[in-house]
Amino acid sequence: MKNKNVNLSRFLSLVLRHKPQVIGIKLDKNGWCSVEELLVKMNAYGKNITIEELNKIVASDNKQRYAFCEDKKRIRANQGHSLYVELDLKECVPPSILYHGTVERFIDNIITKGLLKMSRQHVHLSEDIKTAEKVGNRRGKAIILHIEAGRMHGDGFKFYLSENGVWLTDCVPREYIVLEK
Question: Name one GO molecular function term (predicted).
């Protein structure tokens, strides 16, 4: 059952963050879709899921990737989209230091160009090293970058805090990046 929920969660991530067309749903401009339609289309696609399983996935996701609207009739991903959605994020003042987990093969590019959002809407940063390590370890041995977020903000860069606690910004120029000591 655990593997089934992991697979369903990964598929939800694909559909709600990157490719809703895979199952023929449309996200509104804010990334929301009907829970009822999502379930019908996932089941028709062969990804058998009940409302109870969906509720459990949303509630137990360790990164809180998904959110229901207040009446639980719509669902969306909280952040991480490669397609444009307006998440109505409010600008926030970040802590002085934030962290980003990466791996060695990306370091030269990061040192040259800074952190870029690539195919995503934002660069993702965390408030704690442990979360950054988890993110970096998905692709190999994590290298932790210290981001001088307070200085960036003071220099006019905007930061947003997603509903699930991920700090977001458009880019991190190299002069604000310090390799873990």
Answer: NAD+ poly-ADP-ribosyltransferase activity
C-beta separation of 168 from 125 below 8 A: yes
Beta strands at 66-68 and 98-102: parallel, antiparallel or unpaired: unpaired
Give the C-alpha separation, 133 to 2, whole Å. 24
Look up the pTM and report it. Answer: 0.68
3 sits in which H/E element? helix 2-13
Pick the closest to residue 61 from 129, 163, 172, 142 (CA basis): 163
Name the least confident of 84-88, 107-111, 151-155, 160-164: 84-88
Inter-axis angle of helices 35-44 and 51-60, nearest 10: 110
